[in-house]
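Hey,
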Amino acid sequence: MEIFGYRTQVFRRALCIAGYLFSCGALLLLFYWKPEWDVWANCTPCDLEEADIVLLRATDEFQRYKRKKVISLDLQRLLDSEKPEQLFSEDQESVINRAIARPGGKVRYIQVQKIRYVWDVPGKAFVRVGSLEDSNTCYQIHQKFRDGLTRRQRDLRRWVFGGCLLHILNPFYVFQAFTLTLWLAQGYIEYSIAIIILSIISIGLTVYDLRQQSVKLHNLVEEHNKVQVKVWTKPEGGHQSESCHLVPGDVLLLEGQKLSLPCDAILLDGSCVVNEGMLTGESVPVTKTPLPQADNVQPWKKHSLEDHRRHVLFCGTEVIQTRPSGKGPARAVVLQTGFNTAKGDLVRSILYPKPMNFRLYKEAFLFIVGLVIIGLIGLVYAAAVFGSRGVSLEHAVDTFNTKEGPDVSLLGVVPFGRGMFFLPLHSFSSGPLPWGPLCQAMATCHSLLFLEGRIQGDPMDLKMFEGTGWEMQETCSEEKETGETEAFTIVKPGATASQAPSEGMSILHQFPFSSSLLRMSVVTKELGKDTHGLYMKGAPETVASFCHPKTVPSSFQEELKSFTAQGFRVIALAHKVLSLDAEDSLRDLDRDEVESGLTLLGLLVMENRLKGETRPVLEELRDARIRTVMVTGDNLETAVTVGRNSGMIPLGDRVILVEAADPEGPQPASVTWQVMEDMQSCKEKNQDPCISIDGSSTSFHFAMNGKTFQVLQKYFSPLLPKILVNGTVFARMSPGQKSNWWEFLLLLLLKSCGLVLPPLQALKMAHAGISLSEQEASVASPFTSQTPNIQCVPELIREGRASLVSSFAVFKYLTIYGLTQFIGTALLYWQLQIFGNYQYLIQDVCITLVVCLTMSLTEAYPKLAPYRPPGRLLSPSLLLSVFLNVCFTLVVQIFAFLFVRQQPWYSPIRSHRGCPLGNEPFLLGNGTGNATEPEDTVLSYEDTSLWPLVTIYCIIVAFVFSKGKPFRKPIYTNYIFSTFLCIQLGLSLFLFFADIEAIYKGLMLLCTPTIWRIYILIMLLVKFGVSYFVEDAILQNHRLWLWIKALLRFRSSSKYRKLQRQLQRDPSWPPLNQRDFAEDRKGEAYTNPVFENSEGD
């Protein structure tokens, strides 16, 4: 946001207050909607340092303004005689220290969307507060905050930061108030009362809905405001406190009890097991490790890169288990509180949703402007007619209401023999794995936990551990000679395990898995022995790079490819003996040092079976011409094979492998293009491996890994959009790369639908992110499917399309209803008349209101259509529909208005309402009364003729616009709507044909001959036939519109389609079996570090 400073002027303020009074509050309401006008009228520009009002302007395309008052806090009383330098002697660069003005002890701040920004005096800018400074190093965090804050420091931070609390005039009602006043003045008493009742009901339902949302939101956050936590302060020590009093810098003591975290905190000592289902959508326990005490100058987040999340306990997550370390319980320093936390950010996104730049909103505004212009034309017409007849203008005004989880099974393991070659695959179905380092690696190198009497954790780790036949026991702890308490997990051979000369093994320390590092490792010790070992597992190419070259066989890549090409998931295992002394602290181990010089043990092969519903769903999406893309962290060849087996890559299509390399010395960055071998299709044909290149096939798919994507983004950014057009498989993608991929796709090419579980950032960036989890995952994704498979994707698309079609149908209906009523009223204005009170009530309440409430209840069609519904409000088909229907009703109403005057029984003077009794003839002049009686403003044969035409036509267009296939089910499946439509039609015909005196008097209608009513019915049938034919056979005829587009040579203007057509005309695309170099390294693209170091899985 851009920020501008202003100072309030007394004289301007006085003038504005006078304007509020003289305008009866209208000026104040205008300033409420236009805060920038308020600031410009009341204030003069000045420097931010002197401002008492600031004006914020968004930097997006909307450029919305916000007015904020600068608030001043006097800290002199709190500081007493103590100087700020004394409180911040160890933290001179603290935001609070920089925000305190000297002398005076005042702090200036503004509050923007629940976030507080204080004035940084030396930096002369408003900076965000509410969290620890990111500039702190790991060492500084331990040194500054390990022993907690003093009471004075806590009070000062609470005053400046605010508490750890989460708390949480529509123009339409102004328009309603104006129109109600006008209708009451015009004598529409009953109609106005009905509208008032409906408005009260609408406001009541709105308030109730807002109240329910507020209660849900309150319940979502209130539980974190009253959590009892144990806080360590100096010199008092530990004491109980409510979470609402927490401030960044407080030290929490985590002593084993289950706890819903009320803030974000950095773990300093010990370890914790938490459930982050709300953040990730996965109910898998996650182990949090303490922040290392590394003595370096790097900020703590950059030091840990993506691993920094492994040290952070997030607000809203549940602490399941804690493990003490050192001389006391687990400790964590409060990082962020209130709306600065991850959960607070969710609440803020609900309270202040980001404006969406949908073209629909702009087109809706233009559409409404068009209707306003028509209304103004009608106003001028009415004024001219009434003025020419000598009628006062005050009587001439009327208002027209116009993540799918993997299905993994353990196949076997390929041990590495001593002769520099791999041994045959050991299948677990044939028996347990023999005792040895490979078996020990599978039993210990994982992140599983023994909680609530069962083993919990990652499904792949669970399968691997179950394959050993070993068992896990509760976490144990022992006190070392140094006085420190060491906690660890024990695994022992089970009844089904192979015979082992060992009682078991203890897992002493874990280097957790990171999607950027693609590996994890554990430090273990065999029970009863003093030998320590390190076991590593991860991506085969990564693990092999940490092993001694002599322990990696030359056939490593060939062996790996033989499994990945068949779609198997492969994990490498390695081992190393560690020499640790008794006094060595496991926390001080350097990961880079201990994870080196390993010995490769073998390859763990897992079968990644496709779920039964996956292939049919992908086929349904392909038949509907919806493109599917795979973005995964798996091996590239495994991903390609899964893509072929699932039908994402049809049989016979070419897969082109794209590989990019960073610059090396004088050689610039390069990219190579090579056709991948289609191992699967050759296997099915019992042939030797071959290259699937069909000269007649024009379909191809690009496949690449995350490293290639990163290099392309940095050095070949103009090439990246071309690759994304046909990119189908993106493997070994880290969460940051996935988010970057989403960003490119959204900005350059496509609408998107995010699927599956992590990463969080990618799901948030997608237009429709779906979390396939049984857990509440509101932070991770706007949609959560309780069915853990991808069947929800076509369902969401079907429902979305049906909702869009229904919304446009209601919009068209309301537009045509308003214009139809406008035409009828304009014709009656010609003779200084209007529709009656109850006539309006039937049209507006009994018909239109019911139609709008029930028309959208039609369910989605069960099969996806191979094309999308019109997504534009100003699309040709929608505009033609409105225009032609308005033309039909205009012609019919003018014809009826003029034709009724030609009837022999017509009389311009209206007073008699009765019909001839029995067999009495309908005499000429029936309906005439005393010529001296004043003319009625409603009663006339024109009104009696136009009212059924308008009323029944509202029912006709409601039926016509309720088209079923291909996006919605047939109209008769919407039982409520169909029933009401039949009742409305029957009631309208009854009122029109029934010769009942009470009806004529109540509705202010005149009796007409039966033949004339039949004429009106014929006009309505003609209108129905023409409207239905035009709407169904022409406007909704997709093939006809395709033919018209082809005839007119119309081409889509979207970036995706333009690029697609450009590439189709390029004979050199796609490049094959060649290598290209970056032209100019100075023109390399900028890589956003936010995405490179973003939140991990």
